Amino acid sequence: MSALIGDKGYDGDGFRAEIVDRGAKPVIPNKSNRVTLHSFSKRAYKGRNVIERCFCRLKDFRRVATRYDKLARNFLAAVHLAAIVAYWINESEPTDTIEAGRHAPWLLTIGVIER
Length: 115
Hints:
Pfam family, one: DDE_Tnp_1_2
Protein name: Transposase DDE domain-containing protein
Oligomer: single chain
Domain Transposase DDE: 6-85
Strand order of the largest sheet: 1-2
Organism: Bradyrhizobium shewense
Number of strands: 2
Radius of gyration: 19 Å
């Protein structure tokens, strides 16, 4: 069974019913003012944060955020390159930007980091 993970903004009875009708399980925390509480997997919901941070990091790249490319294949290639660079930056996270410029000066030229 598949699951749809959403935040509290999607905690509506109609939306939950639509998810169930489509054969998925809603993993949505309850709003604070909800009368009837629904159970949800807190463990599965924690994974949502990882995905959200990934999209946030990809949007740091202007070419991906504004979708300069007309063709879908070119845009997908830009997303792949941005994901590789974001992963590489995350893996070799230096303590300051000066050290980052010393290790990878090309990051300064493409505007990923600033001095």
